[in-house]
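Notes, Module 5: Reading structure tokens.

Key idea: the token line is not a picture. It is a compressed description, and you learn to read it the same way you learned to read a sequence, by spotting repeated patterns. We will look at two proteins. The first is printed below with its tokens.
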Amino acid sequence: MKQVRRRTMILLCIAAFLAVGLLWFCVRWATQGRDWVNYFGNTSLFGNGAIYDRNGVLLYDGKTGEYAEQKSVRKATMHLVGDSNIATSMRNVLSDRLSGYHPITGTAFGSHDIYLTIDASLNDVAYQALNGKKGVVAVYNYKTGEILCLVSAPSYDPENPPTDVSGSQYEGVYLNRFFSSLFPPGSIFKVITTAATLEKKADWQSFRFDCDGKFEVGGQVITCPRAHGSNLTLQQAFARSCNGAFGQLALELGGDVLRTYAQSGGILNSYDISGVTTAAGQFDVGAAGTIDLAWSGSGQYHDMINPASFLMLMGGIANGGKAQVPVLLKKESFSDSSIPSSLKERSEGNAIWSRSTCDALKQMMRNNVQETYGQKNFGDLTICAKSGTAEVGNGQAPHAWFSGFLDEADHPLAFIVLVENGGSGANVAGAVASKVLQKAAR
């Protein structure tokens, strides 16, 4: 009898260990199954899905490991499509979709094909327009959230990656600057200061400023590239990007108000864009009455922005105060078929400022093009924009920014262009934007 009892206890212990082991395996399967299946070493077994652009142009074939046919397209889409070095690439972020992985069925139903929202030919135009410069070009539909163009440079051909990326020409090459980087915004931040002025300064229409090229704050000087003239209105100061005028406005509004509007404008937030988490912007409030606070109103001091969040802000202004979170996944199907394997990804909307504020900004940004940047540089496109020339110090040329949107019902497109150390925002980044938008609006 004792022997039977002893054997029963042993069997119960074994059964308990088996049950605990099975439970542990199930927990690991549920929490780490995706990582097991989609480990890059397993791509020959499970990574057979393909990636296409919105028009069905092949960008990556998981079965063969080959990329797009054109070398220029491969370089222009490298950061999005990716290889094992790009953590934010769609090959990595959407690997479970490409393999067709499901926690219940595993990969039993086969791989999936992914169709991105981007237009490969538009990416190609954008990459060529950067002309070897580092930077970012992005365009998205501010009604639907679909990203049509997303280029980060420098890049390389993923079919023939460089053996040495330590040189300056490849600095930051593994980083998608659109998602993961922060940059000083320069004068494009004046959109934030202007929004705060419109809503918090009741007498803003009577604002006037005399610019002789410099503005003194506590014995220190804010400079403008030139004297912008006397009796400037808010709209004129915005169009001429007068640092002195915006320094004065920053001092009047105060750092807490500016930070509140940077927050409500969404540029201090982090977003999930089709599985990729963007970097959150920064705004350090300078002490009241100081030149630091004055400079922060013009996008200098310690202001830092992420291109993705600023693109959303542009879309929000164009869309009457509702900023759509960008999306990259247009559709998904079972491989080599047109049978859908998931629902279309939907864009969430974030409220920014009031419609009246956004309408006023839209009108001012349209005036910028007509008065300062020159409509002739953009053909017949109805562009509303703000340029920026962000000082970076250390003897380097400033970053060139150009951001805005098309005020056209048939082409609801917002854009952001950054040319690192490019110099003049309107001339350099504006020229890139013009080439890309002319293509996008055809």
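Here is the second protein, with the sequence above and the tokens below, as before.
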Amino acid sequence: MKSKNIIPVILCGGSGTRLWPLSRKSYPKQYLSLVSQEQKSLLQETYQRISNLENLLNPILICNEEHRFIAAEQMREIKVEKNTILLEPFGRNTGPAITLAALIAIKKEIDPMLLILSSDHVIKKTKNFIDVINLGINYADKDKLVTFGVVPTSPQTGYGYIKSDQPFNLSGIKGNKIKAFTEKPSYEKACEFIKDKRYTWNSGIFLFKAKTVLSEMKKYCPEILNHCEKSINKSENDLEFVRVNEKYFENCPNVSFDISVMENTKNGIVLPLNAGWNDIGSWEAVWETSEKDENNNLRSGNVFLKDSKNCYLRSEKRLIAGIGLDDLIVVDTNDALLISKKNKTQSVKEIVQILKDKGETASYKHQKIYRPWGHYLSLAKDKRWQVKSILVKPGESISLQMHHHRSEHWVVVKGTAKVELNGNITFLSENQSIYIPLGSKHRLTNPEKVDLIIIEVQSGSYVGEDDIVRFEDKYGRSEKS
């Protein structure tokens, strides 16, 4: 029986520091296009690879406050608009996240199946993936909690492992009972595991009925269920977002779904997955999963190579020229450059933490900052002044606001700007400018059907982003964003 509706639940949390400097807290890897030939983000590909499943309903996305407009816009770009985006006030791991999704799902449907997906995985063989999901539906319909164990190809120590009661058989795939979970083993243990066909990598992909998982959560981790129920009952709707109640959610245990439920349930089933899965956990993994040239190099952006092999080079802007390179990762962004031996990229996360401890803002924040109305790029800055490039999308506008510590000068370089300044309306064309005095109420709007780009020069005693007093905002923002 395969008639039950399926709601995809896409987990969009995480800061993606292992793919720094391209992925940062302000714009992590799940929103980036890393291996897609169609320039789709990992989030967009996550949904599109399952879009042909039968009885598929619109997804539930779970992300944090900072990335809500990015997630919403990326789903709109692939024509998925009637979704629910749950906003966690802070991360509480996958146990609470999945519980929140199940509680929301049974408000929408009687008892739908939930397909739990991470937003940052790559799966090369989509047909194989869909075939295994369809097999999993049969088990989930019988109140089993299904997970998908990736058939290991090497003794990886960065993945968890699932041990089943029977060896997997790819020529006749069936679900086996789960015996045990092992977190990131030693290399010696990993070598033992891949010789034993009862072991698979833990993909973090799950399938089950909503009421079934809530029943198991009540049995094995009632504290999570209790706080999540209160958080949902006291949640608030904001545009397409559901804001989880912060007071109750704060008390939720910070525990994974594996630990809270899967390691305890008697109804766990694992299906072997052989579909070219990769969690893109390092730059080496990006190189491995990408299309390469005849010398095993991957070049992205303005890159020239001579007598080089087995490299990944990515430039967001400048020309990179390499001679005689071998097994290197080079990633160049507007404000940071990473150079690493390919087999050392698992240490990037440690470098990012060191930079953060030293107060380097580039460790977590891009120069280009995305907003629901568009984005801005910091071009130059000192203590008392800053120059930005600001792009406002057609029909969008910044909030009506004022600043206590800075004045601004706007120069239109593309499009037409509608400027509201202390109640007066002015329209500016290319090469025209306007001065925004300190303390004045102002708003910038793009009234046209093409992007508006202005250059903004700020000057004053303080030019931080928190010097904003917001009076009106079409996006319902109250924080400094």
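Summary for the second protein:
- The chain has three domains: 6-278, 283-356, 368-472.
- The radius of gyration is 24 Å.
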